[in-house]
Specification:
It contains 13 helices and nine strands. It has 443 residues and is an alpha+beta fold. The chain has two domains: 253 residues, no CATH class; 135 residues, Immunoglobulin-like (Sandwich), CATH 2.60.40. Helix 1 packs across helix 2, helix 2 packs antiparallel against helix 5 and helix 12 packs across helix 13.
Length: 443
């Protein structure tokens, strides 16, 4: 079939498919809109959770996926609305035919103006058809653009971390290979972007095009543009498609800026502030976020603002920074290969009693180190804590301990969770959370 595109029969088939493509467009748009609305909440929740546990790779990935979903949803909804208007216009044309300006009996000035601006009803239907077809095609093209930018950023990240910043490679290899490669990607990125926004200016200049061609060839693989290049050039050689694409991109930027607007009702306080001695953020109390799917614990939490039991439960959320701190203070348990990140969940079946025993002993040593670097105070009084691995009410992984409150005065108090860290070769104690609470004994 790939060699049949030059035959007349194949061209007739394409023309027939073009005439009937609106049906497929509506079917695909309908299923896609339903799927996107269904996926938005889980993606948004996963993105918030990745941000909460300080997972930058997951957060950036899910942010890009979420932006792509919103762009695709906006375009497809616009496409369905315009396509519905197009179908309505076709039905009206069947009943009423073309616009009869003489029957309107307007003054010559208005009649002439409307004939110039509107023209025939068929012209209006044709314009709607063009908008629908172009918007449907450009919806998926813009998603490819976003993935292209993501792949370029990922390439810079990989070169920076696995070549320039790789301690396992000799320094001369990192510098000789990594720096030129980084410069090539960065300068190539700017040249490719300049060529994109100028709609191929670098390709039009004969001597510049010879220099730019190797960069263009390499970036066609980095950005996977060879998959959608035909769509791009089909847009660029069509004035209507080019004009519409130039209108949509600024529109997305305006929508993004508009979505970031909020009303600020105080000069000094924000609802997003972290808990401290004068502010209690709901994200530090498990009972206040238990029924909210998209809200997670901010670093640490206690069960409630009001404590009546003779003990206080303290939960610290696990994140990569905690594990890095544990390795800094106990290098003996740091693995030779860091396996954090994406991995396959497959059981090998080769685990034996020795490996299980070794894993358990390392976990005990891990918790011992964690309890050495993490300390808890109520007001200014240090409390003995014994954290163990646990899960919060929302199944967040973390560390949990219970503090004895016998002898504590009734009223307002705050619990401080501090963690040691190495800063410029010195050990410093850093407060990661301060949570206020009110203690009243049970009657």
């Amino acid at each position: 079939m790939s060699t049949d595109y030059t035959k007349t029969s194949f061209k007739k088939l394409l023309e027939k498919l073009q005439e009937e493509s609106w049906q497929l467009e509506l079917i695909i748009s309908g299923f896609a809109i339903f799927g996107l609305f269904t996926a938005l909440d889980p993606i948004s929740i996963a993105r918030t959770e990745a941000l909460n546990v300080e997972n930058p790779a997951g957060y950036i990935t899910l942010t890009i996926v979420l932006i792509s979903c919103y762009i695709l949803l906006f375009n497809l909804l616009l496409h369905v609305i315009l396509r519905g208007l197009w179908i309505g216009a076709l039905g009206l044309r069947y009943v009423s035919g073309d616009i009869d300006y003489d029957a309107l009996n307007y003054s010559p000035k208005f009649t002439k103006y409307l004939q110039k601006k509107i023209g025939s009803f068929d012209r209006y239907i044709g314009t709607l058809e063009n908008y629908c077809s172009v918007i449907f095609a450009i919806s998926f093209l813009l998603i490819f653009y976003i993935f292209s930018v993501t792949l370029i950023i990922l390439s810079i990240f990989l070169v920076a971390n696995y070549i320039i910043g790789n301690d396992d490679l000799p320094q001369y290899v990192s510098m000789v290979l990594g720096i030129p490669l980084m410069l090539f990607i960065v300068f190539g990125m700017f040249l490719t972007f300049f060529d994109f926004i100028t709609q191929g200016w670098l390709k039009k200049k004969q001597w510049i095009s010879k220099i730019y061609f190797p960069i263009y060839w390499v970036f066609s693989f980095i950005t996977l543009s060879f998959l959608y290049r035909a769509l791009v050039y089909n847009f660029l050689d069509h004035k209507f498609g080019k004009r519409l694409s130039l209108i949509l991109v600024p529109l997305y930027i305006l929508i993004f800026l508009g979505s970031s607007l909020y009303f600020k009702n105080s000069n000094y306080f924000r609802i997003t502030d972290r808990s401290n001695s004068i502010y209690a953020n709901n994200r530090n109390y498990e009972d206040l976020i238990a029924d909210k799917k998209d809200v997670f614990i901010n670093r640490a939490a206690i069960p409630s603002k009001i404590v009546s039991a003779p003990y206080l439960q303290v939960f610290v959320v696990y994140d990569d920074a905690i594990e890095d701190a544990v390795f800094d203070f106990n290098q003996g348990i740091e693995p030779e290969e860091d396996k954090r990140g994406l991995s396959f969940d497959m059981q090998s079946g080769n685990n034996n009693n020795f490996s299980s025993y070794k894993r358990d002993s390392i976990q005990l040593e891990y918790l011992r180190t964690f309890n050495e670097i993490v300390s808890v105070k109520i007001d200014t009084l240090a409390y003995q804590s014994d954290f163990i691995l646990a899960q919060s009410r929302k199944d967040e992984l973390g560390f949990e301990t219970f503090l004895n409150l016998k002898g504590l005065k009734e009223g307002k108090h705050y619990v401080d969770i501090n963690r040691k860290r190495i800063w410029r070769r010195d050990t410093v104690n850093r407060r990661i959370a301060r949570i206020p609470f009110w203690y009243y004994k049970e009657n």
